[in-house]
C-alpha cells in the first residue's frame, strides 16, 4: 500500500507581524528606501532560487546519464530465449516482473547468495529436435491410487496431487521422447504403486541397460539373482519392512545387494531419475518451484534421526546398517540447479519464496545410484500456482523446461 505523503509547504508571513491598531498619520522615515531594499532583496532571492533549481536539474540529468551509460550493456544479451514468448501471462495474485528469475543466469553473471549457491548455468539456444538421443530418463509420477498426495482444499479436497503429477509426467514424457530420449514411466494410471515397487522397476531398467551395453560389473547369474529379489518388491507392492515390500532397500545404510546395484548404476551416466511432485503449505504462504536431491550427508543425518524417533526402526526385524558414502552428491546438486533455472527461467511466476534447491532424504532418490532429483513443480495450496497448473500452456512450459534442464545438465557434464 502506498503511503499518503503530505507535501511540505513553506508559509511566508509578514516579517513585521501584526501591528498596533493605533496607526500614525506621519510617514515612516526612509519608507521609499526601505521599499527599494526589500524589492532588490526579493529579486536576488528569486534569482538564487532559479539558479539553484536549474543546477539541480542539470545535476540530476548528469547523474541519470552516468547511470545509463555505466549499466550492464549486455543485460539483454544475457537473457536467454524462452520456449514460449513472454506474452504468456496469467491472472496472478502475486506480482511478477517477467524477468528470468534470480537463479537463471550465465556463468559470468553469478549471484552471491549465502543460502543457495547456484552455479547459474543457462541453456544455449541451438537446441535440435533430436538433441537427447541416446539418453534415458526414468520418470516417476508421484503418488497414485490410495495415496493421493497433497490435496486442496484441506478439509474438502477437490484437487489431488496424484492427478497433476501423472498429467505433467506424461507431457514431459512426450517432450523428452520427441527430442530422442528413451523414457520409462513408473506409473501410467491412477493406481497404487509403492515407493519400493518404483525403485525395483528402476533397478530392473538399469540392469537391462547395463546388460545391453555389456557393462555389468558382475556375472549374468548375479544379475538374474538380483532381478528375482527386485520382482518380489513389485509383487508385494508395499512400503513396510513387515510386508517384505522394502526388500533389499530398507532405508538404513546400503547392503551388499544394493551396493552391487549402486556400483552398476554409477556407470550409467546417460540415465537420469526424475520424480514429479507438487508441494503444499498449511499456512499457504509458500509458492513456486523447488527441487530436492540427496547427498550422503543428508541421508545419514536423516537416518540417524529416524533411528532415534521412528518406532519402525526399533523393530527386531529392521536391519541397521553402517552409514554409506559414495553417492554422486555434486551431480545431484547440478541437476537440481539445471532444472530450477529452466523452470523459473521459462515460468517466472514459479520462482519460489522458499529455498530453490534442497538436499534431503527421499526414498526414491536414496535407494539407487543414478543421478536424480525430485521436482516439486509448484504449490497446490497456493491459489496462483494451482490456477497455472490447470492450464495446458503452463503444463507445456513445464515439460519444455524440465527437458531443457536435462539437456543443460548433460551439456555441463559434457556427456
Question: What does it look like?
Answer:
42% of the residues lie in helices and 9% in strands. With 415 residues, the chain is an alpha/beta fold. It has one domain (76-413): Zn-dependent exopeptidases (Aminopeptidase). The protein has helices spanning 31-70, 75-78, 161-178, 195-213, 220-236, 256-265, 296-309, 329-346, 363-366, 383-389, 392-413; strands at 136-141, 151-152, 159-160, 182-185, 271-279, 290-293, 357-359, 371-379. The strands form two sheets. The chain has a six-stranded mixed β-sheet, with helices on both faces. A two-stranded antiparallel ribbon has the order 2-3. The relative contact order is 0.14. Helix 3 (161-178) crosses helix 11 (392-413) and helix 4 runs antiparallel to helix 5 (220-236).
Write the layout of secondary structure elements.
Elements: H1 31-70, H2 75-78, E1 136-141, E2 151-152, E3 159-160, H3 161-178, E4 182-185, H4 195-213, H5 220-236, H6 256-265, E5 271-279, E6 290-293, H7 296-309, H8 329-346, E7 357-359, H9 363-366, E8 371-379, H10 383-389, H11 392-413
Parallel strand pairs: 1-4, 1-5, 5-8, 6-7
Antiparallel strand pairs: 2-3, 6-8
Helix pairs in contact: 3-11, 4-5, 8-11
Amino acid at each position: 500500500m502506498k503511503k499518503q505523503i503530505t507535501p511540505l509547504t513553506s508559509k511566508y508571513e509578514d516579517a513585521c507581524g501584526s501591528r498596533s491598531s493605533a496607526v500614525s498619520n506621519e510617514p515612516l522615515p526612509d519608507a521609499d528606501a526601505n521599499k527599494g531594499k526589500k524589492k532588490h532583496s526579493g529579486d536576488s532571492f528569486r534569482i538564487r532560487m532559479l539558479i539553484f533549481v536549474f543546477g539541480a536539474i542539470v545535476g540530476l540529468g548528469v547523474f541519470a546519464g552516468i547511470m545509463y551509460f555505466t549499466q550492464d550493456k549486455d543485460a539483454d544479451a544475457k537473457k536467454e530465449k524462452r520456449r514460449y514468448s513472454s506474452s504468456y501471462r496469467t491472472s496472478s495474485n502475486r506480482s511478477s516482473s517477467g524477468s528470468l528469475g534470480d537463479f537463471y543466469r550465465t556463468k559470468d553473471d553469478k549471484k552471491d547468495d549465502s543460502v543457495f549457491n547456484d552455479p547459474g548455468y543457462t541453456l544455449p539456444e541451438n537446441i535440435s529436435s533430436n538433441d537427447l538421443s541416446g539418453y534415458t530418463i526414468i520418470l516417476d509420477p508421484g503418488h497414485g491410487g490410495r495415496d493421493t498426495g497433497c490435496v486442496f482444499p484441506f478439509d474438502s479436497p477437490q484437487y489431488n496431487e496424484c492427478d497433476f503429477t501423472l498429467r505433467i509426467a506424461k507431457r514431459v514424457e512426450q517432450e523428452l521422447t520427441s527430442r530422442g530420449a528413451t523414457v520409462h514411466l513408473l506409473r501410467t494410471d491412477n493406481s497404487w504403486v509403492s515407493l519400493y515397487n518404483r525403485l525395483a522397476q528402476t533397478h530392473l531398467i538399469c540392469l537391462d541397460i547395463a546388460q545391453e551395453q555389456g557393462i555389468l560389473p558382475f556375472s549374468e547369474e548375479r544379475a538374474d539373482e538380483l532381478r528375482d529379489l527386485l520382482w518380489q518388491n513389485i509383487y508385494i507392492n508395499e512400503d513396510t519392512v513387515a510386508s517384505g515390500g522394502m526388500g533389499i532397500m530398507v532405508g538404513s545404510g546400503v547392503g551388499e545387494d544394493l551396493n552391487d546395484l549402486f556400483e552398476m548404476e554409477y556407470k550409467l551416466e546417460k540415465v537420469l531419475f526424475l520424480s514429479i511432485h507438487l508441494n503444499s503449505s498449511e499456512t499457504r504462504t509458500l509458492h513456486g518451484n523447488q527441487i530436492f536431491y540427496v547427498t550422503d550427508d543428508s541421508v545419514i543425518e536423516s537416518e540417524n534421526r529416524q533411528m532415534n524417533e521412528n518406532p519402525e526402526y526399533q523393530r527386531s526385524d529392521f536391519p541397521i546398517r553402517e552409514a554409506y558414502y559414495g553417492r554422486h552428491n555434486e551431480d545431484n546438486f547440478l541437476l537440481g540447479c539445471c532444472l530450477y533455472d529452466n523452470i523459473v527461467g521459462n515460468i517466472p511466476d514459479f520462482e519460489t519464496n522458499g529455498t530453490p534447491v534442497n538436499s534431503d532424504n527421499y526414498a526414491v532418490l536414496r535407494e539407487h545410484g543414478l543421478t536424480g532429483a525430485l521436482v516439486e513443480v509448484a504449490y497446490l495450496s497456493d491459489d496462483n500456482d494451482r490456477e497455472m497448473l490447470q492450464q495446458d500452456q503452463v503444463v507445456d512450459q513445464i515439460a519444455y523446461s524440465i527437458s531443457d534442464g536435462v539437456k543443460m545438465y548433460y551439456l555441463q557434464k559434457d556427456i
